[in-house]
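FORM 12-B: Structure-to-Sequence Request
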């Protein structure tokens, strides 16, 4: 079962900026980043880095780990959408396996 997760930038826009009446430009000033950096995040063109997670935590609350969890969950959901195209070799017994089989 595939679950589409919203990009975490939507949470920044809808849960942080909009309730406070902040524009992207104003939010960028609060966070100490460029307008383009925040714009890329809220428009789903960039993810939440560890540093951004700390900035979001300091400015709007929530633990940095929570912000990073949103990003990780989104990234995993995106990878799962293309899971069938990911090919890896499975090793059943490292000591006896010379030719791992391709899944």
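FORM 12-B RESPONSE
SEQUENCE OUT:
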């Amino acid at each position: 079962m595939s679950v589409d997760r919203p990009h975490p930038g939507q949470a920044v826009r809808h849960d942080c900026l909009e309730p406070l009446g902040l524009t992207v430009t104003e939010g960028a000033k609060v966070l100490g980043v460029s307008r383009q950096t925040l714009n890329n995040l809220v428009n789903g063109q960039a993810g939440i880095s560890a540093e951004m997670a700390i900035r979001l935590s300091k400015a709007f609350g929530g633990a940095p780990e929570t912000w990073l969890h949103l990003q990780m969950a989104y990234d995993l959901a995106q990878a799962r959408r293309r899971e069938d195209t990911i090919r890896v070799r499975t090793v059943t017994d490292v000591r006896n396996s010379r030719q791992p089989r391709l899944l």
